[in-house]
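## retry 2 of 3
previous attempt timed out at serialization; input unchanged, resubmitting
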Amino acid sequence: MDRQAHHERKGGGQADQKQWKASIKLDILSDIKVVELAHGLAGAFCAKLLADQGASTIKVEPPAWGDPARREPPFIDGVPQPEGSTLFLAFNTNKRGVTLDIEQAAGLELLLRLVADADVLIESYSPGHLDSLGLGYPVLKETNPGLIVTSCTYFGQTGPYRDYQGGDLVAQALGGFLHAVTGSADMPPMGTALEQMEITAARNGVIAIMAALFQRQQSGEGQHIDLSTMEAAISTPSGLIHPYTFTGRSPKRGGSDGNVMDGMHLPTADGEVTLTTAGTGGRPMEAWAEFLEEPRLLDPKFATSRSRMDNWEELYSLVAIPLAKWNNLDLMRESMARGLVLGLVQSPQQVVDSPHLEERGFFVEIDHPEAGSLKYPGPGFFIDGENPLKGGRPAPSLGQHNSEIFCRELGLTSEELGLLRAAQVV
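## retry succeeded, writing output
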């Protein structure tokens, strides 16, 4: 038995759709059905955000290979295998998973049956590709007039860039992010890691989908949402594009270069911190001079932001010596207790071990049949004191719910499913 068939037999048919929904602690979107036909992170995360709030979400992957994220490192135990990619495991909680080759006529028919009663379809194919398969928006709208189709691409469905391939770093570069947001003034541009533009696009997609769902309550009609990752980077207020369009002045890289009191990382006895002038009541140097017991910080040469930048090396030497005597947590507790504000530069382990996050119940343990018990960060908010991720399900194994969805919900027989598997349709 191949791996995919094994997962179908192991995971499919063990719980019907109601049981699946009931497993999720908060089911705000439990009456919403989402079909995810995405092979990029923006589409996957957009679907995850809906699934984490209870939407019945079906992830459709190509047979055998699955989502490209399954092959992205790092892997659980360092061993490359499709059920162990930490990227895939992180972006696909609370979804059921099927495999389907929509390039084949039988696969196309099954997808149309899946979306016939769906509320949302999320796809990330190149513009025009679904049209070439007979799955363009007009066909989908005819099949299901209330369907909300969200197309996630790097440059949108129109314009001269529409057919270009992209990536998170490409979106940062073309969106102006690299020009002024990250890096030093005297160094080349530097991108941010962790797929931040993909995640921003996904959140924009969820906002648009929720708005379309509300609008559908009045009109009864679905909509086609055109989601661009590059435009997500541009539209986020970050002191970048807005200052230029409002004033004509272009921000530059290196905003924290030499900015000892608002941006520079400073060493302590066991790590680094970032000081700020927030919380000082407009008297930043007086407040920090008192706390650090360093009266030389009251010198008029440090009185303004500009003068502190002009004399940053001397200022650095004055604050670095007393800071080096503190460990991070004690420094944070004592300074915050006085109303000062600073940021600890924490490692992932320090974040996970944070007593604050532990008390709030921010992290949630979810068991995966192959990857084991995994600790997931919560969504960043609580609803009526509950973590929405609590009681959630792990990312699906490849083809795990083929039998459950194709047989139990769409009415195929086991023999028909077997023939489709033999033909590599599923």
